[in-house]
Amino acid sequence: MAYLGQYRATAKTAFLVTLGAVLLLTLSPEWLWQMLGVAITLGHNKLDHAVAFAVLATTGYFAWPDSRGKLTCLLILTGAVIEVVQGLQMIGRDRDAWDWAADCVGMGLGLQIGNWMSNFTVALRYDKRKSL
Questions:
Q1: Under 8 Å CB-to-CB from 7, ≥6 apart: which residues?
Q2: Does the global pTM surpass 0.85?
């Protein structure tokens, strides 16, 4: 993990930019995006939620490697708050517990992807040392 330490600032920036984009897209009224003619989707709402939280979890995995428990709690709460706020009349979206479940599945997948990537980079560094 020390090898990836030099990229921690980049991972933190990527996480915060992604979090901002997710919050903007999920908490803006649907009519606003329709009026602007913008449709950012993978074709299925639950897949959109899972992918967004997988990206957040993967970047967060490398941004704060010593705080994965806190990251997990933050993402679980973020997904829940998004669903509660989406149910407010001024947002004009639907509150759906299955969206929150998709967020949690995506988060779990993202943390596993981060783990695989971390193990892969450690293995690459080990192979470089071994061949010298």
A1: 62
A2: no
* Pairwise CA distance, residues 102 & 39, whole Å: 20
Distance CA 128, CA 132 (A): 7
Cα-based distances in Å from 5 to 66, 79, 114, 116, 130: 11, 28, 14, 16, 22
Quick: pLDDT tens for 80-101. Answer: 999 998 887 777 777 888 999 9
Provide the terminal-to-terminal Cα distance of the chain, rounded to the nearest Å: 21
The Cα 65–Cα 13 span in angstroms is 14
Instruction: Report the alpha-carbon distance of residue 41 to residue 43 in Å, rounded.
Output: 5
Domain ranges of the chain: 3-131
CA distance 31 to 125: 50
Q: CA–CA distance from 50 to each of 56, 61, 93 (Å)?
A: 10, 16, 18
Rounded CA Rg of the chain = 17
Which pair of tokens denotes residue 95? 């509150």
